[in-house]
Amino acid sequence: MFRVQYYFLLIQGFMAISSKNAIVNPVSAQTHSDSLDASHKDASHKKTSHNEISGAEIVIRCLNEEKIKFVFGYPGGAVLHIYDEIYKQNGFKHILVRHEQAAVHAADAFSRATGEVGVALVTSGPGATNAITGIATAYMDSIPLVVISGQVPVPAIGLDAFQEVDMVGITRPCVKHNFLVKDVRDIAETMKKAFYIAATGRPGPVVVDIPKDITAHKTSFHYPKSVEMRSYNPVLKGHSGQIKKAIKLLLEAKRPMIYTGGGLVLGDGAPELVKLARTLGYPVTNTLMGLGGYPASDPQFVGMLGMHGTYEANMAMQNCDVLIAVGARFDDRVIGNPKHFLSQKRTIIHIDVDPSSISKRVKVDVPIVGHVQSVLAEMNEALLLETTGTAEKTKNDTKNDISAWWAQIGEWRKVHGGRYEMSDTVIKPQYVIEKLWEVTKGDAYVTSDVGQHQMWAAQYYKFDRPRRWINSGGLGTMGVGLPYAMGCQFADKNAQVACVTGEGSIQMNIQELSTCAQYGLPIKVILLNNRYLGMVRQWQEFFYENRYSESYMDSLPDFVKLAESYGHVGMQITKPSDVEGALKEAFSKKDKFVFMDFITEQSENVFPMVENGRGISEMILGDEKKSDEKKGAK
Amino acid sequence: MKHIISILIENEAGALSRVAGLFSARGYNIESLTVAPTEDSTMSRMTIVTSGSDEVIEQIIKQLNKLVDVIKVLDLNDGKFIERELMLVKVKATAQYRDEMKRMCDIFRGRIIDVADGSFTIELTGSGSKLDAFIESLDNTAILETVRTGASGIGRGDRILKI
Fold first, then answer.
1. Is the preceding peptide bond at A203 cis, omega within 30 degrees of 0?
2. CB within 10 Å: which end of chain A, N or C, has fewer?
3. pLDDT in tens, A484-511
4. Is A162 a catalytic site residue?
């Protein structure tokens, strides 16, 4: 504090001098305003008083008011004033990444793991464009972020200035909202709005673009306690009449199904859903984004559904008579061909905070717009009234009806049951994930990249808690795994964090090995190395007659040496018998980053699988060629 | 089916591009779009003429409502409404056409607002279909230039879009 006041005096002294030498030609000051003292000259136009602080300091104070713990970022010209203020504060810790994309991914994972708003800070131009993939990834999965980007000074905007890009324009399709702040007096309110918009309703990333001169200008600081926007009023409570209707339908169902997605996890509705599902005794499936929303070890859980979902989940989804969707959006990877899905008659109840998610791909019978947690809580109350009101009858009725449905689901469970062929000679990727689950006792944060390894992680790691499975579901961004693991480790420094990845994906943000070294992050990288872009290769095998166009990964680095060069521990595992021991050894190194290079079966495919454009009950269950020689099948 | 959608939106830089961007990103069709500030200068009123199935229109309304700058959305086709559009047409008014143009203009209750040696400029207001009808009834070769504002719409009677 003392130091800060001292700084003020210095600045004011400097201004007193510089205002005497006021700039004669304002145009030259504008076009060269990136030069060292331009900002002081700009600010000198205004009279400053003791309680006025710079825009840069206001940004920091806003972040402190929001109780932000970590800001992930990378400095550059347009954000130098802000970085100077970061140097002087200790309200939050700034994490220096090695690429802006990773900054946004790490902030995104921090949010997924904690439920808090993630914050990233990048400079203008290339810093801003590098952040785009991160922002779009968060947008597709509805993750609350505030991304602060530097911008060229206001007078230079539109003049193709050095490192200028129209950030508000370029991010418009992939943000919940964005702002360009053109007056220092608007910073505080804009920041408040940004956090409010990011976190409420259907969450999402918000970009605040701040020109450099604005961060130098001074004004008094007042951070609003709350903010009201006439144009933005997210719905919270669900409609009681609709909730009653839903309860009635659920209690009358013969073949009910509960289908939950990422919205349940993000809305912290999992405990209420578990209560509802257990009271009803109905089967539950989770989407890829929703894993952990219902405990995977619970007998009512039928597994993930969708393109690589379980046979039983997809069959139950297709054949149910009453479906309740909670924070899920009937995505193309989940319900396959909507026409095929609708060929079976069923009544659909849909709870979602975003009205535009309802009846977007599939017509819904009972829409309930509201926050999943509050809607589910109200349903639980209503259900309690209903079942105690007509206690005996209802309970017996539902139990009877359901047993036939459960028997059918039991039959479906036997059809595939997550089987894969075991081998003594070559490591099966599924086996690695199973052992990872055992060694971490099912309680690690598991981040993944995108591809086959992602599906295997989703299928074979049994998530019992929400916010433990961190992956890019909507955008499917290769390269998220390592920065996601960083975000998780910052969120919970003592937690076990495993990054399940492929040799293709890991190389898309491999530079973050350096960040991990700098902050001593004890992440464990589980690289399932099959020397192929596995999912691409699988599709080429199935749909392009084995023409493996550009899907072979040549010239791979020696990952062990690479890890070691950053000061990490590197391991290569080639034999199935070594898998468990190696994992145990790696996770026993509690303060070390361990890079585990598992050399796995090259041509392993992800099953079950629904081909693109097919119905979800039309599944390929395994490799026909290989199914004859299923000696070691589990 | 054609729908006329009225929007109250914050009068802020970039608000129009959010709406236009939404339509292009999601593949919705815009036939016309008009926008201007209202009596309260912090708000703009926008009228969009679009078309699509009921499901598409429902999504358009929902997606518009989702935009943070959008204050209110009304599908005018849900009730009774009035639609007006302004058109300026410059037509040949040489001796051969002069009387004919004056007559057509009167029939459609247009006004000639500029007279030059060889041309008239006609101002015409009405629904989109009336303006279409006027264009169709003119000899195509006589039309030199047309400019249309796109439709503005307002609900009849008690249907009021206000905050």
1. no
2. N
3. 999 999 999 999 999 999 999 999 999 9
4. yes
